[in-house]
Amino acid sequence: MKRIVLGLALLLAFAGIAQAQTAVPVTSSAPYGTDGEAIPLVYPAQLPSYVYVNTIDANVYAWDSTHTTWFNATNFRITVGILDGQPHRITLYLLDYDHLNRNEQVVITTPQGAQLTQTPVTNFTNGVYLSWIVTGYVVININNTGGLNAVCSGIFFDPPTTPTPTAMAPSLPQLIYSVTLNITPVPGAFSYKAYRGTMSGGPYPMLVGTTSTLVNGFYTITDTTVSPGNTYYYVTTSVSAGGESGYSPEIQAKP
After folding, report:
1. Comparing 189 with 17, which gets the higher pLDDT?
2. Structure-model confidence comparison of residues 92 and 229, the more confident one
3. How far apart (Å, rounded) are the C-alpha atoms in residues 216 and 111?
4. Per-residue pLDDT tens for 112-128?
5. Are residues 144 and 205 in the same domain?
6. Rounded to 5°, angle at Cα 190 from 184 and 196
7. Whole-angstrom Cα distance, residue 24 to residue 117?
8. What end-to-end distance do the CA atoms of the chain give, in Å?
């Protein structure tokens, strides 16, 4: 996965995908975070090389010197990409530290919004760990269903495992290769276009038959005309009342 800042736009490309996007709940026990972890207000995050993590709409707060949290009055998201093609155990630590009788719903989806699993959480003043075996790229939604703020106090990563699932694992879909471009909305733009070349620096013929769709705060354009093993070079443009913008910086993807 590649992330490139385009001034007003953020372009994410991930080749999808030779690996299914799955999240299977599992019963787990300590230790957590043998590969790495991300904890609010602890910088830098100690992340393994195989993972991409980003929080969206999450504020940070310290109850005291050792208890911190991400929070939002309604909901926030943690995007996670497992990049090494292996299943890994991912664990969230949820803590209702100040005993405010919080209730939450943890919903894991694909980047396109398809729900993979959901878990209600109540009575967690002493803290609770929730674990899943995850492959691919997923979005963890922390939703407030009662009390003050949705909260999460850490995410932990562990090596590939062969889990005993607490729920039936979804069957793997038929393998389809594609590249999805995620574009952060540009003020004033009402549509976006994608261009693809087979050589770095162009030329970039426009991708025909594609449209930009708003999903989880990004405009997505999916290229389903790719072949595995080939390298493609993408640029995007935004369209506003003033016309079409220039090309974004080039990124490459190899499904």
Report:
1. 189
2. 92
3. 7
4. 888 999 999 999 999 99
5. no
6. 65
7. 7
8. 11
SS3 state of residue 226: coil
Tell me how far apart the alpha carbons of residues 46 and 38 are, in angstroms, rounded to a whole number: 6
- Structure-token pair, residue 119: 């878990």
Overall size of the chain counted in residues: 255
Is the backbone peptide bond immediately before 31 cis, with ω within 30 degrees of 0?
yes
- Lookup result for tokens 């694992």: 169
Q: Which domain holds residue 10?
A: 2-15+175-253
Structural domains counted in the chain: 2
Q: Which residues contact 6 (CB under 8 A, 6 or more apart)?
A: 248, 249
Helices and strands (DSSP H and E) totals, the chain: 0, 22
Burial 189-198 (b: 16+ CB within 10 A, else e): beebbbbbbe
Give the pTM. Answer: 0.60
SS (H, E, C) 116-150: EEEEEEECCCCCEEEEEEEECEEEEEEEEEECCCE
Q: Is residue 168 part of a domain?
A: no
Between 151 and 177, residue with greater pLDDT: 151
